[in-house]
TrEMBL record:
Protein name according to UniProt: histidine kinase
Source species of the chain: Streptomyces boetiae
Subcellular locations according to the entry: Cell membrane
Catalytic reaction annotation: ATP + protein L-histidine = ADP + protein N-phospho-L-histidine
Keywords, sorted A to Z: Kinase, Membrane, Phosphoprotein, Transferase, Transmembrane, Transmembrane helix, Two-component regulatory system
Length: 427
């Protein structure tokens, strides 16, 4: 359905078409009922007039000639008249009644009394008038359907323009949410002040403000990290010159932590600025993961399924795997397990610990700098997973976070396959 938005029945286009169709049907129904009622009343009045004229002609002929033969045919005994008509007869008055008991041959009755009080009734067939009304109803129905057949497509076409503009605004908003801070709807500078243009302009203004704030934050992070490098270098040198003692060890430890923090801040600033570029080469993932764990000095139960490989940047891959292992050991509980397996369109590296798992905020919003999550997962600056996610984006990999059903945090790095690896193996 996403590939065919025109067929999505919940889209604004179809809602507008349904509203226009409902309004058109309501108008057609109201006009049809009005015309039908007016035509029916006119037919009843004309039929009653014809019947009464026929009745008065017979009565006048009887009065003039006193000829019983003049009323022999239209004269009916009271008992032979329809009950509905018989109840309506009043001396000296004319009454009419429409008899539609025979749907194909309706009659219009007119009844009165002779001078001697005898009831007299005549009837005329009004089937032709009925058929004329039925033909008019069918014509109005066909006309209404024809109008709907034209109005609905036209309403769909008319709704397409604002719908297309709204889709463009939504697509731009999704790009901004995905990190493309330069995405814009292009609504500024265009003529037109409708609601869609207002929404588009608001999205562009929001993107400008968001980009300004994020770039200000990035510049601040980079400036702080750069400004700290010079005094930190002096602090490292001074710490090395201190005489050996327990206090010196504590100072050197804290200086090392501070130095690592500054390096991580510089790395994040480069990632934020988009200055990092990957250099992809064929990499045997099982061997690369084992080497990363060995260099970090971290114990992990590594399982390699087959011969998974990918064309990626080995230095950045090592950075990602190391950060994931450090996070699992620092915030989780042993054993830490790493599974490396080939997939149909690439390979996957899964790092799992057996601790309390990732906090709900991280699962919902992803890793955030200077937010280490729940207290039970330990302390930290929250930069390790942020750097891992940034480096994964640089090499074109997908890094996702989840909690295992049996407990523990699970980080999955999926690397895409590609022709570069196949060409490297063939060489």
């Amino acid at each position: 359905m996403r590939n065919w938005p025109f067929l999505h029945w919940r889209s604004l286009r179809w809602k507008i078409a349904a509203l226009v169709s409902a309004a058109s049907c309501a108008v057609a129904l109201a006009v049809g009922l009005l015309v039908h009622e007016r035509t029916y009343d006119r037919s009843m009045n004309e039929g009653a007039g014809w019947a009464v004229r026929e009745l008065t002609t017979v009565i006048e002929e009887h009065r003039r000639t006193k000829d019983e033969a003049a009323v022999a045919e239209p004269l009916q005994e009271a008992a032979d008249l329809p009950p509905e008509l018989r109840q309506r007869i009043r001396p000296g008055e004319y009454t009419t009644w429409y008899d539609d008991s025979h749907a194909d041959r309706p009659w219009m009755w007119a009844a009165g009394t002779l001078d001697d009080g005898r009831p007299l009734a005549v009837r005329i067939e009004v089937g032709a008038d009925l058929r004329s009304r039925q033909a008019l109803d069918r014509t109005m129905l066909r006309a209404a359907l024809a109008v709907l057949a034209v109005v609905v497509p036209l309403s769909l076409l008319a709704a397409e323009l604002p719908n297309r503009r709204l889709r463009r605004v939504a697509a731009t908003a999704r790009r901004i949410a995905a990190g493309d801070l330069d995405a814009r709807t292009g609504a500024r500078g265009r003529r037109g002040g409708d609601e869609v243009a207002g929404i588009a302009a608001s999205v562009d203004a929001m993107a400008d403000a968001l980009r300004g704030r994020l770039r200000g934050e990035q510049r601040f992070t980079a400036d702080v990290a750069h400004e700290l490098r010079t005094p930190l270098a002096g602090l490292v040198t001074a710490a090395e010159l201190l005489p050996e003692s327990e206090a010196t060890g504590l100072v050197r430890n804290r200086v090392a932590v501070l130095r690592k923090l500054v390096e991580e801040l510089l790395e994040i600033s480069r990632l934020d600025a988009g200055a990092e570029r990957a250099e992809a080469v064929p990499v045997a993932l099982g061997e690369a993961v084992r080497e990363s764990a060995a260099r970090a000095g971290l114990a992990a139960r590594i399982t390699v399924d087959g011969e998974p490989a990918a064309a990626t940047d080995p230095r950045r891959l090592d950075r990602i795997v190391t950060n994931l292992l450090v996070n699992a050991h620092r915030h989780g509980s042993p054993p830490v397990e790493v599974e490396v397996a080939a997939e149909r369109d690439g390979a996957a590296i899964v790092v799992r610990d057996h601790g309390p798992g990732f906090p709900a905020e991280l699962l919902a919003d992803g890793p955030q700098r200077f937010r280490s999550g729940a207290a039970e997962r330990g302390r930290g600056h929250g930069l390790g997973l942020t750097i891992a996610a940034g480096q994964a984006a640089v090499i074109g990999a997908a890094l996702t976070f989840a909690n295992a059903p049996g407990g523990g945090a699970v980080a999955t790095l999926r690397l895409p396959g590609g022709p570069a690896w196949d060409e490297g193996r063939a060489g």
